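To illustrate the input format used throughout this study, we show a single complete record. The first block contains the structure-token representation of the backbone; no residue identities are included at this stage. The design step must infer an amino acid for every position from geometry alone.
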């Protein structure tokens, strides 16, 4: 949805993702996407991003000034103020049953909710979510619950959420936990 909004308003987008992560052709082919940074380590990502910014003529966005001192990275996206965000909405899907068909004990959800409330000040849970994916030539289905937390962008830690994903995958006996973040604005 964010890519569609960016395309509608003529904003340019650079996708940044880790090597080995699958990005849909729909996202890569969106007219707003003007480049991609595919990395295995953060320093590599920063170097690629800096090069891409300079190539696109966006050198003024480089956080290191010509004198070598840091200044804030100020992005001017050209989007109207109503589409500028200060928070991130993080959503993740968790199965209601383990892969063996046994239901997930509600105490696991209660412990998770306690942790989310302590760390983020609250959470929202959307129940009765269904999902499907292809695996080994067949359609697999899941009954899921979706959690959402909102975090201020300055408090967001990518590594914290990667750690959370790995912990949740282990606790829910999953290969992967679907987690997405999108800019949002609290009204």
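Output of the design step:
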């Amino acid at each position: 949805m964010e890519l569609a909004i960016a395309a509608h308003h003529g904003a340019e987008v650079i996708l940044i993702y880790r090597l080995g992560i699958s990005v849909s052709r729909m996202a890569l082919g969106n007219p707003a996407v003007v480049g991609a940074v595919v990395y295995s380590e953060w320093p590599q990502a920063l170097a690629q991003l800096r090069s891409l910014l300079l190539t696109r003529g966006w050198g003024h966005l480089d956080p290191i000034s010509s004198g070598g001192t840091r200044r804030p990275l100020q992005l001017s996206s050209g989007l109207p103020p109503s589409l500028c965000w200060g928070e991130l909405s993080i959503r993740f899907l968790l199965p209601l049953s383990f892969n063996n068909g046994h239901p997930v004990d509600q105490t696991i959800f209660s412990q998770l909710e306690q942790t989310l409330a302590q760390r983020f000040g609250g959470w929202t849970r959307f129940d009765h979510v269904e999902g499907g994916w292809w695996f080994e030539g067949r359609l697999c289905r899941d009954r899921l619950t979706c959690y959402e937390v909102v975090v201020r962008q300055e408090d967001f830690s990518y590594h914290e959420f990667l750690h959370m994903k790995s912990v949740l995958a282990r606790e829910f006996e999953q290969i992967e936990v679907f987690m997405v973040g999108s800019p949002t604005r609290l009204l």
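Structural context for interpreting the output: The chain has two domains: 2-79, 87-184. The beta strands are 13-18, 33-39, 87-95, 124-135, 138-152, 179-184.
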